[in-house]
Amino acid sequence: MEISEAHARELEKQAARKAELQALVASDLADTKSILFEAGCGHGHWLTSYGEANPNTKCVGIDLISWRIRKGLDKCTKRGLRNVHFYKAELGEFLEVLPSTIKFEQTVLLFPDPWPKAKHHRRRMVQTEFLDEVARRTDVGGTFCFRSDDRPYFDWAVEHLNAHSEWEIDPQAPWPHEMETYFQKLMDAYYSVVARRV
Ligand SMILES: C[S@@+](CC[C@H](N)C(=O)[O-])C[C@H]1O[C@@H](n2cnc3c(N)ncnc32)[C@H](O)[C@@H]1O
Question: What domains are defined for the chain?
């Protein structure tokens, strides 16, 4: 099938972007065996606070938006954090380039975009395929932590976790770290769930 010139250029740009990200990640995380992973980290409030309190944990945050990632990186520089890394990356692309040997001790999603319209639900980060991939990278006992102000999206996350054979919701599990994110500050109420890899 022939592809248009514009589409071909877009594919080239995507390949170059992924190659650059892959090289950066490979060099930063060369000897890393496991990480705490935050998808959609925004300005990095939570991750920098967690990383400061847990200096022996390698923390990785990704977000689509460059200036939010720059804010996270600035926080790391100001506080001299060497165990926290931020990347401007799309979730699927990041998981493609992250070495398959790197495990997730914990995965954290804080106030991810709820995509309320049914026709947009496929854009939500929580999908069976995403939970499959996180499960593949998580040893038994590791956790998946989700927090949202949007009740329908929270219920969607709970349903997907309950339907997944490798995740079990643990109502007793403590929340890994309390630090208000930018979006949490804007919300009156929110819901949290922690699931364990089984
Ligand atoms: C509502 S904000 C929440 C940010 C932060 N977690 C907080 O609580 O302040 C959702 C974030 O997810 C990012 N995001 C959405 N889809 C993404 C994707 N597919 N890959 C990476 N980041 C994504 C957005 O750019 C945005 O910064």
Answer: 5-197 (3.40.50.150)
Q: What ligand 1 atom has the least distance to the C-alpha of 45?
A: 9
Contact by Cβ (8 Å): 48, 81: yes
**CA-nearest residue, atom 13 of ligand 1:** 40
Backbone torsions φ then ψ of 142, nearest 5 degrees: -65, 160
**DSSP output for 97-157:** HS-TT-EEEEEEEES-----SGGGGGGSS--HHHHHHHHHHS-TT-EEEEEES-HHHHHHH
Name the percent of the chain lying above pLDDT 90: 95
In 3-state terms, what secondary structure has residue 85? Answer: strand
> d(Cα 145, Cα 175) in Å, to the nearest integer?
8
How does pLDDT run across 129-151, given as a tens digit for each residue?
Answer: 999 999 999 999 999 999 999 99
Give the pTM. 0.96
pLDDT in tens, 147-175: 999 999 999 999 999 999 999 999 999 99
Atom of ligand 1 nearest to the CA of 68: 27
- Active-site residue numbers? 113
Q: Which residues line ligand 1 (CB under 6 A)?
A: 40-42, 62-65, 68, 90-91, 110-113, 181-184
